Amino acid sequence: MKYFPLVCLFGMSLVFSFSASLQAKDRPNVIIMVADDLGWADVGFHGGDIDTPSLDQLAAQGMQLNRFYTTPICSPTRAALMTGRDPIRLGVAYATIMAWDNTGIHPDEHFMPQSFLSAGYQTAMVGKWHLGHAQQTYHPNNRGFEHFYGHLHTEVGYYPPFANQGGRDFQANGVEIDDQGYETYLLADEATRYIKARDKNKPFFMYMPFIAPHTPFDAPDDLKEKYADVKDEREMSRSKNSDETRKMMKMLGQSSARPIYSAVVEGMDRSIGRVLATLDEEGIADNTIVLFFSDNGGAVYAGGGAYNAPLRGGKGDTFEGGIRVVATMRWPAEIKAGEKLDQIMSVMDVFPTLAAATGVEPQNTRKFDGRNMLPAVKDDQPIALEDNLYFVSETPLFGSFSLTTFNEKWKLVQQIEQDQIHIEVTNYLFDIEKDPHEYHNLADDYPDLVASMAKQIRNRRALYPINGTRSQLVPPPGWRAPISWTDYPIPVKKLQAKTAHGMVPEYGLRVMDMRHGERGRLIYDCTPKWWLAGICIGEQDEAQAE
Is 74 designated active site? Predict the structure, then answer.
């Protein structure tokens, strides 16, 4: 009898362990698929003329997210997805992270897979990263992904050698690989392999960002042949920069990118179909959340090939065509088939929403800018915006900005052309509730509203780190790429223990930051306070003060 308590405790521990295992096993799996530059009108369920049966299946079996917003360009959207925070705060907003940049997302920022990993999920990434590559602190394996198969950069091509700036860029967990074949299909191969080889006693979190349908285009021969005779009948986008490039292309007699673009889109759809079929084969489709969206609107400029009609503009613009994107979510166990969500949802909402759906406790210490939209997705409960949304772009021309702030009703778009001694600002005010396709500029009718919203944009832009990304299409003079990008990130053990302070003495940092005013921030994640004469205080400082 003296051993009875020990036996009981041991038995109870087995029961609790078994219960915890069951609970973990019953948690939904998560797959986030992200297209690169997909047009609003380029999927079947939006009436497109490209065959996308897999995406149409997702939409039919799940919910279309009709007002899903991203940033106008690539890296900022990915930063917002991973952190649930406004990329303006992160220093990755105006432009993407280029191969010659040494920037990334601050290691103090918490990434979504880190929370899922700490909650017992298996985590994997298959595809394009584009969130930093110069230091190991920026690498996917250091941001919560146990397994990483893919590319650190963009524009690596669809066939080997998968290179950026001449440097080979294809790896598995920091080791260069030489897998052969069509890149989009290789990602499906790896995603399928991972799902089948997973630990079936634990749920998994997978991030699958395609390079498709980003330039430079290429596709398998059968798809090229299928779309070879497609005529480009796209109407103009009503975005000056994009439309001028297309007119110039026609004047120079260049052929349309629409046929090859169409082939690339269907290739991506086929890969998505393979992953969906694998979920069916494994018997886990019902309890797997599959979220699909494009990282920004389709590229409608010359060479882009995408189509966003009836939305205005495209990639790089803050008109709807640049930020309102194709999006759908399927979760058969919880979301009714064939539903549509017409409420505003942004890429910053994904982290808090998926955490709520899976019962994962977010481990972030900095406040989300996104919201938990699960009640809206599951039960169509109205969830109002707590603050306006803000998006910015300086792509592709240095000093040429497209900016916006908007809510459920009003949207201000500012186009700013900045030369050495001259700045031209054009305001577009839309009643986006009544005019979702942005035909009627009401700026002259509501000057006070324009002034108020323009001030809001300036205040938000003032949070941008001074050394954040800017539009620069070529490297510094003399810069060379590595032979292999797996050799490029500086290992953690060869880095200083703390982030670098900079040149300004500690005692003068806040004063110097204040003097920058609306130009931006020297101190990371710091908000100027009017009651401190413009001296900034970060969220961490405010928490300590309270």
Answer: yes
